[in-house]
Protein: Thiaminase-2/PQQC domain-containing protein
Organism: Salix suchowensis
Amino acid sequence: MVPVKKSGMIDRWVKKHLVLYTGAISHPFILSIRDGTVDFSSFKRWLVRTLFYQEILEQEFSLIVLIESKDWQNQFVLLIVE
């Protein structure tokens, strides 16, 4: 009997989205990180963008928590205090 290789979640995702994955790992910025030649101004722009999107996601998550909470008035106060 030939052993069957199990496919993990990441393997399945890469197979399903191969074009997207290949484009992402061959992006010039990613290649410059790999090579150690990343331009400092490009890195700063990436860092600012990442922090901006993280802030947006945190706000979206807070809104989701607020909507999902049964005791929304107390939850709202907690979210403002934090």
User: Anything to note?
Assistant: Residues 8-38 form one domain. Helices lie at 9-16, 18-25, 28-35, 40-68, 72-81.
